[in-house]
Design a protein that fits this description.
The protein is α+β, with helices and mostly antiparallel strands and about 575 residues long. It has 20 helices and ten strands. The longest helix is centred in the middle third of the chain and has 59 residues.
C-alpha cells in the first residue's frame, strides 16, 4: 500500500511539473507583472535641466510635428515588430539634447559613435497631458522613453513610489528593462505635470542597437533586482520588514509560508517514512502481521519489545535535556535577531536626525523659506545619506553586494541613484568594495562644514558638535551590526544543539514503538515537526540578513524597507 501511495504521489507531482510551464507559456501577455524589473529611472543633471528649459529649444521643438495623446489614453500599446527604416528628422538642438542625455547615462558609455547616431535618430517627439500613462504596469511595452519637459510619477500596484525615486524628471531615461529582460512593465509611469513632452524610440530597435552578451545581461539583471528593492518597486512582504500577522486563531491556522511547519516539512515526512520502515521491521522481528493498520502497542511479552522499552526510557531522559537546551537556544537566537533589528533602526534614526539638524540650521529668507543655496545643500546631504545607507547594507547583506561591484556602481548611476560625479569619485577611490560606505559618510560632514564656511549653515560650535556627534553615532551603530553578526553564536554551541536535536528526533521511532505500535508514526511526525522546526527557526534568527540562504523557506528581514524609508526621510525635511 505504501509503495502504491508513493508511486501515485510521484505521478501527481510529475503531472504538476508538466502543467506549470504549460500554464506559463500560454498565459496572456501583460497578465503577470514581474516586479523584479521595474521602470529604470536616470537622474536629471543640472546641465541637462537647463538645456531642457532653454527657450530657443522650446520654440523650435514646438513647431516640430508631434503625436498628441488623448487625455487618459495609454501611450505604450502599439505592437512594434521591426526596426525603423527611416530616421526621424530633428533639429541640431534636439540631437544635442538627446545625445547629451544618453552620454550622461553610464548605460551608454560603451556605445559606438555610429550606434549612438542611429539610436538618436530613432527617437520621436510626443506629448502627454496630466493623468496620462506613458507606460502601464503589466503591459508588454513597445518603447523606451526620454523625458524632455515636465515630470511623471511612478506607481506600483496602485501605490505611488515615494520621492526621490518616485519622480521622473527631464533627461530621465526609462523603460529599457522590459526589452533587456523580455519582461512586462513592472510599474506605471503617469504624467504629473499639466504637459509632459518626451521622446520615445521603438523597443525592438533599442534592443538591437544596445544588444548585450547573455552573461552581461544576467549580471545586470541581478543588479537591477537589488536596485528594485532599494528604490521601492519591489518588496518581500508588501512593504514591511517582516510579514505581519493577525492574532485570530483561524487566520493563523491557515498560514503556511514562513511558518515552522513549512521549515520542517521535509524532515517530518522523512522521519515518518523512517518510522513506517521501523514498524515493519519490528513486526517482522516479533512475528506480528507486517501491514496491519491500527493494531496499537505490541505485546510486552516479546523480548524485542522489552529491549525497545528500555530505549524508550533513555529517550525520555534525552527529551528533558533536548527541550531545555533547545528552548534556551531559541531564546538566545531571537535576542540576537532583535539586537540586529534594533541597530538597523538606530542607523536609520541617526541618519534622519542628521538631516533634521541640517534642515533646522540652514539659512532661510525673511519668510522662513529655504534659500536656493539651502535647498541645494539639503538635496546634496540627503543624496549622500541615501548612498551611505545603500553601501552600508551592500557591505553586510549578500543580496545587495552586487551594488558595490564596478558594474553595480555604474548601474546605480544609470538608474539615477547616484550622480555621474559621485560615480567618478568612487571609481577613483582606493576604498575596497566593503568600505565604500565611508565615502558618502565623509561627504555628509565635509559638505556641512563647507556650508558653514559659506554661511549657508549655522557655523557655531554647538551645531558643529551636534553634527559630528551624529556622524560618529552613525558609524558606531553600523559597525555594531557587523560586530554582532561576526560574533553571533559559537560553533560548538550550535553544533551541540544540532546533534542533540537530530539524535532525539531520529531515535523517536525506536523509542515510541513499544508504547504506541503503528501509532508511533503520528507521534514521530509531531515530535519532528516541532523540535526540528524550532531548531531551524533558531538558526533563521541567527541569519537575519539571509546571507547563508538558510531562510529560503522562512521569513527574514526585508532590508529594502530600511533603505526605502530612509529615501523618504531624506527629503521630507526639505518639504517641511
Amino acid at each position: 500500500m505504501v509503495s502504491r501511495m508513493m508511486a501515485c504521489t510521484m505521478i501527481s507531482v510529475g503531472f504538476l511539473l508538466l502543467l506549470i510551464p504549460l500554464n506559463t507559456a500560454f498565459a496572456p501577455s501583460g497578465v503577470c507583472v514581474n516586479r523584479h524589473h521595474p521602470i529604470s529611472i536616470s537622474p536629471s543633471p543640472s546641465t541637462l535641466r537647463s538645456l531642457s528649459t532653454d527657450e530657443s529649444l522650446r520654440s523650435k521643438n514646438a513647431s516640430l510635428p508631434r503625436k498628441t495623446i488623448p487625455s487618459g489614453a495609454k501611450t505604450d500599446t502599439a505592437i512594434i515588430t521591426t526596426t525603423p527604416t527611416t530616421i526621424n528628422e530633428k533639429s541640431a538642438e534636439e540631437v544635442n539634447f538627446i545625445t547629451t542625455a544618453l552620454l550622461k547615462n553610464s548605460l551608454f558609455s560603451d556605445i559606438s559613435k555610429s550606434s549612438l547616431k542611429e539610436l538618436v535618430g530613432g527617437f520621436e517627439l510626443s506629448e502627454a497631458t496630466k493623468g496620462d500613462d506613458l507606460v502601464t504596469q503589466g503591459d508588454a511595452g513597445d518603447y523606451v522613453y526620454l523625458i524632455y519637459e515636465g515630470e511623471c510619477k511612478v506607481i506600483v500596484d496602485g501605490n505611488a513610489i515615494p520621492d526621490p525615486y518616485g519622480t521622473v524628471q527631464p533627461a530621465a531615461i526609462f523603460g529599457e528593462l522590459a526589452f533587456f529582460y523580455g519582461e512586462a512593465r513592472a510599474a506605471t509611469v503617469r504624467a504629473r505635470s499639466d504637459t509632459v513632452r518626451y521622446y520615445r524610440v521603438q523597443g525592438a530597435f533599442f534592443k538591437e542597437i544596445m544588444s548585450k552578451p547573455k552573461e552581461e545581461l544576467q549580471n545586470m539583471q541581478a543588479i537591477d533586482e537589488a536596485i528594485n528593492q532599494v528604490s521601492g518597486t519591489d518588496s518581500l512582504y508588501g512593504g514591511d520588514v517582516i510579514a505581519k500577522y493577525k492574532p485570530e486563531r483561524i487566520w493563523l491556522w491557515q498560514q503556511f509560508d514562513g511558518t515552522v511547519v513549512k521549515i520542517s516539512l521535509g524532515s517530518t515526512f522523512f522521519n515518518m517514512a523512517l518510522c513506517v520502515a521501523f514498524v515493519v521491521y519490528a513486526r517482522y522481528c516479533t512475528g506480528d502481521p507486517l501491514w496491519e493498520i491500527g493494531a496499537g502497542a505490541p505485546s510486552s511479552s516479546s523480548e524485542f519489545v522489552q529491549k525497545l522499552d528500555l530505549v524508550g526510557k533513555i529517550w525520555d531522559i534525552d527529551k528533558a535535556l533536548t527541550t531545555f537546551v533547545l528552548t534556551f537556544f531559541v531564546n538566545q537566537s531571537f535576542s540576537f535577531w532583535r539586537n540586529v533589528y534594533q541597530l538597523a533602526r538606530d542607523v536609520q534614526g541617526k541618519l534622519n536626525d542628521y538631516n533634521l539638524l541640517i534642515a533646522t540650521n540652514v539659512k532661510r529668507d525673511e519668510n522662513g523659506l529655504l534659500t536656493p543655496e539651502s535647498e541645494q545643500l539639503l538635496t546634496q546631504i540627503s543624496c549622500y545619506s541615501r548612498l551611505f545607507h545603500i553601501f552600508m547594507w551592500s557591505c553586510k547583506a549578500e543580496r545587495f553586494s552586487v551594488l558595490v561591484t564596478p558594474d553595480g556602481l555604474k548601474r546605480l548611476e544609470s538608474r539615477g541613484l547616484m550622480k555621474p560625479r559621485q560615480l567618478e569619485v568612487l571609481q577613483n577611490s582606493k576604498l575596497p568594495p566593503e568600505g565604500l560606505y565611508a565615502a558618502p559618510l565623509e561627504w555628509m560632514m565635509i559638505r556641512a562644514t563647507q556650508a558653514m564656511d559659506e554661511g549657508t549653515l549655522a557655523g557655531d560650535t554647538a551645531t558643529k558638535g551636534m553634527l559630528l556627534k551624529q556622524i560618529v553615532a552613525i558609524r558606531e551603530k553600523q559597525q555594531k551590526i557587523s560586530d554582532k553578526i561576526d560574533g553571533r553564536m559559537p560553533l560548538a554551541y550550535v553544533n551541540f544543539v544540532q546533534i542533540l536535536v537530530d539524535t532525539f528526533v531520529v531515535t523517536a521511532p525506536i523509542a515510541l514503538y513499544s508504547r504506541l505500535g503503528d501509532y508511533s508514526v503520528i507521534a514521530v511526525g509531531t515530535v519532528t515537526i516541532f523540535y526540528t522546526g524550532l531548531n531551524s527557526l533558531a538558526k533563521t534568527f541567527l541569519d537575519p540578513l539571509n546571507n547563508e540562504g538558510f531562510s529560503s523557506d522562512s521569513i527574514f528581514m526585508d532590508l529594502g524597507v530600511f533603505l526605502r524609508e530612509t529615501n523618504g526621510d531624506s527629503v521630507q525635511w526639505k518639504k517641511a
